[in-house]
Amino acid sequence: MKLHKNIKNFLNYFLGPLLFIWLSYSIFNQVKHQPNLEESWIRIKESFGGPMIFWFFSVILLMFVNWSLEAVKWKLLVQHIQPVSFIKSFRAVLSGVSFSVTTPNRVGEYLGRVLYMNEGNRLRVISLTILGSISQLIITLFFGFTGLLILKSRLIQTELHLSPTWINIVLTGGIATLLFLTLFYFRIAWLVKWIEKLPRISRFTYLINGLEKVNAALLVKLLSVSMIRYLVFVIQYYLLFRFFAVEVTWWQGFWVTAVVFFIMSVLPTVALFEIVQKVYVAREMFSIFTLNTLGVGFATTTIWFINLVVPAAIGSLLIVSLKIFKKGNEAN
Hints:
Blueprint: H1 2-32, H2 37-47, H3 53-78, H4 86-100, H5 109-114, H6 126-150, H7 152-157, H8 164-186, H9 188-196, H10 216-243, H11 250-266, H12 271-286, H13 293-320
Helix pairs in contact: 1-12, 3-4, 3-6, 3-10, 3-13, 4-13, 6-8, 6-10, 6-11, 10-11, 10-13, 11-12, 12-13
């Protein structure tokens, strides 16, 4: 335990901040030496005062669409445990975002959501919430690997110096992971029944028995909503690329963004610090199509602020008014 604690302290208080500083310096250095930096900066400032501002406000609107779709997913998942309205589900999702910003890989999101359930149901819906995250991960991995396959030759030929062997290893391992995860996803009810038969585990099966009632129709619905939500993410990025004068086509933007999403999904991170990693990854990946790293950085940072910081702020206000323990075991 002591070794584990020392490793944790090392990662939290030394390696994490060191990586943050190194990535920040690298991004600053690359932007500083960007060709036509002054011209790019002028075009970005002009966007805020011209008709392109429409794209900016469209991204803000799509943020609400994004989290509304996540609320629909969560509502579908928990309805057989405890029916909730869309408004309540939406509030739970935003509250989860406020918890997630300070936890590794946003695991605190589950805590924020379950506070809106009755006390006896809170632990039971955690497994269902995780299932919803898996549905989104499957979509992210699918498009990420497809994007990596499509961009493979371009990535090898650029200054990124990625070897064909390394890319093939990632593709092979990734496809195997995706197939396993998809099989696990669609056989989740069978897996729960198998686990219930194991000795010494039966007393904990109430935590996952809600998964038994998840059928194939619901799983397909979750994947469909996750797909639409994924497309909303990509559209947000493309609109901000237009706004910040990043000259990439829709095809280029879609597949490079897909690879960026994939890379960020497998990197351990804390939401408050992930923006530096995300800007670094996005800048490196989009460098195969554009020299405007300043615009890429602005677009990525703006997406992070609109999709994460703003919802987290709203969610924190909702939590303030939430009565965690009420008479009759009702959540607000």
